[in-house]
């Protein structure tokens, strides 16, 4: 498959309720131009006609996005290298110019508050069950490394970081985000 060397693939890394979906949706929305989308969001929670799908479906959607000339943001938890490997390989094989990990750093207490306050999240994860899932994810979390094939690893722990990552690393036009 041929992609465009200038296109980026962003692999989001963080437990449920860390802000990945909000970030991905904002990135896609804020980088739209009069000519159309510049980014596509790939989310396992909704990839199968609005329902949860498979990792394979997400990999195929990543490849399709690059083939269409779009940059791709992969909205999954990716808590360990094994969960990230298929996406990094597909991005490389499809000609992505950069493969970037964006790591969401949120305290356990903040994740708990967010999860308890969630209503109707597209992934269906909220409440006490969601808190338990978050706790398990935090224990399993292995931060990404460049040896996995990432060209860059960026970290988000607050709103300023979020804006800076979108503006300085993913968006050609800072004014579109400010």
TrEMBL record:
Transmembrane segments: none
Gene3D superfamilies for this protein: P-loop containing nucleotide triphosphate hydrolases
InterPro entries noted in UniProt: P-loop_NTPase
Pfam families: AAA_33
GO molecular function, one term: ATP-dependent polydeoxyribonucleotide 5'-hydroxyl-kinase activity
GO biological process: DNA repair
SUPFAM superfamilies, alphabetized: P-loop containing nucleoside triphosphate hydrolases
Protein's name according to its UniProt entry: Uncharacterized protein
């Amino acid at each position: 498959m041929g992609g465009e060397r200038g296109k980026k693939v962003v692999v989001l890394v963080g437990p449920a309720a860390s802000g990945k979906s909000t970030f991905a949706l904002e990135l896609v929305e804020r980088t739209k131009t009069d000519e159309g989308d510049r980014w596509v969001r790939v989310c396992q929670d909704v990839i199968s006609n609005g329902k949860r799908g498979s990792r394979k479906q997400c990999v195929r959607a990543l490849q399709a996005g690059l083939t269409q000339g779009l940059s791709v943001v992969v909205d999954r938890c990716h808590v360990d290298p094994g969960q990230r490997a298929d996406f990094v390989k597909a991005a490389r094989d499809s000609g992505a110019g950069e493969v970037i990990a964006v790591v969401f750093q949120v305290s356990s207490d903040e994740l708990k508050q967010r999860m308890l306050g969630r209503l109707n999240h597209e992934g269906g994860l909220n409440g006490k069950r969601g808190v338990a899932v978050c706790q398990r994810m935090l224990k399993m979390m292995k931060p990404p490394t460049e040896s996995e094939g990432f060209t860059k690893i960026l970290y988000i722990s607050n709103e300023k970081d979020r804006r800076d990552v979108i503006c300085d690393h993913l968006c050609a036009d800072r004014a579109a985000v400010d």
